[in-house]
Amino acid sequence: MCGIFGSILKKGSAAPIIHAGLKRLEYRGYDSVGLATVDDGKLFIKKDAGKIDDVHRLLDLDAMPGRIGIGHTRWATHGAPYKVNAHPHTDCREEIAVVHNGIIENFADLRAELEAAGHVLKSKTDTEVVAHLIEDSVKSGLSLVEAVRDAAKRLDGSYALAVVSTREPDKIVCARKESPLVVGINESEVYCASDIPAFLPLTKKALIIENGELVVLSEGGYEIRRLSDWSVVPREPEVVDWNPEMAEKQGYPHFMLKEIYEQPDTLRNTLRLQNQFLDLMTEFLDRAGEVFLVACGTSYHACLAASYMFSKLAFLATHPIIASEFIEQHGRSVNIDSTILFVSQSGETADTLAALDHARLRAATVLGLTNVIASTLTRLARVYVCQQSGPEIGVAATKTFTSQLSVLAQLALRLAKKRGKVSHVEIEFLEERLEQIPEFATTILKTQSDKIKALAQKYSKSQCFFYLGRGISSATASEGRLKLMEISYVPSIAYPAGESKHGPISLIEPGFPVVFICPKDETHRAVISNIMEMKARGASIIALCEENDEEIKRYADDFIEVPKGIPEILSPILYVIPLQLFAYYMAMERGLNPDMPRNLAKSVTVK
Ligand code: AGP
Asked: How far apart, in Å, are the Cα atoms of 20 and each of 4, 10, 17, 52, 245?
């Protein structure tokens, strides 16, 4: 997830406007930045790795000629955050500049084709292929607009593109497929950006560019065309009444809620990861002597869920371990035959890195799953996968958790396929369901949010909660509990439901809220008896169940429904979303700021 910005002014210099616009997009990515302007038939580019303010101090991003320009603030996905990989990217003749937000899945094939045709590509990015594709079309006589159209049609994956060229120095050409793209209009200027906040201080007149559309910006205004049939799309701008603070959260009151609602998109991103790294990691897991899954907090809960996925699908036994206990618990037994997958959204958590250092000392194989390219974890891991969730600002991990689960499920599926332990029919069924996960997430957010808000009102005074689930849902229960505790400060206990009768049930008294995670899987029957045990002691049952699961609904005091047909090993990805919302609304009911929970930090870099 990166931020793109472009502007065409009637007079004056575009660079300071673009610089300021990128600053307002910095929450989308901040590991490198760059601008391109066109003036007097020449292309001017300034770019480097680092935060915008640091690069500006070095290069003075405002000092560039030209009324027309584009810019980019990056969250690296392909190619580490070095200067050469920063956007804008250009063609061989440095006449065309491109900035891009999204993931081009077929970039490797396009790159090979372009290199075979004599193009020299300088960076490791997926984006650079676009500049060279456009170059080819322009060379064959097409206009810039037609060249961008044809290039866009060759791209698989997601993109929001902005392109300038010295040959047609009076326009910016943009195209969109999935990644967000909006246009801002005022009397004398026109802007394009990844989201409205970027140009809100300049104009409140915004135009949403839809999927599969291309827009040509020029001094006189804009023209939208549909990529599929090249037809012109008439559309008037809307007026947006947001204040700057709301703007940064795209109209959401808090980053946490915004990030919960981003999950359909971030989950879609996880389905577009580069096969080579997933395959390589699968290879290492397949030939491992023993496998540990090591992490802290929410990431540890992803490891817990993954241990069920690897066992059930690939018959691979794995040990999910809390990082701060790893050395004490396994420090002596870890050796050259051990393979350890460290999971950390920040890639900087001290307890996780300490366990990693120990593992390296013992010659174990170190693998990594993270959300931050160039983080310490990526530098120390033998192989790592970057989950593409984009920056997560809210301290409470939400979208990064579901993305971790999606990646771990894909690894388990690949391992199952490799080991031939599960029938092709079942694997195809699971892969199909995995592709549908983003839509399921959208359905839950659309249909259950108000109900969950009402539940938070009903239970906002409760002093303690139980979260219970069986099998893989015990991981979902633990994560739901952590979310509630960390942002609403309500003491809560999570247990594998079967274990609750070995002690914790003594806490139950009339009205004591117990959240049950009960997907319709092999544990369904047993969970119903656990519900009955709790009900018999007067507990208030809040059940997360499949839509139309009348049996569970009959026994529950309150229930939240999740779409039916979600396979057990994928269920945590979706069943956790209502628990994230419940925690959020509980914090709101208790007058707390969900984004800034007390005593916590987004990345815990102390042991
Ligand atoms: C989760 O909401 C918390 N922010 C915290 O438990 C977090 O998951 C933990 O500190 C691990 O962080 P990491 O994934 O960046 O390593």
From this structure: 12, 18, 5, 10, 16
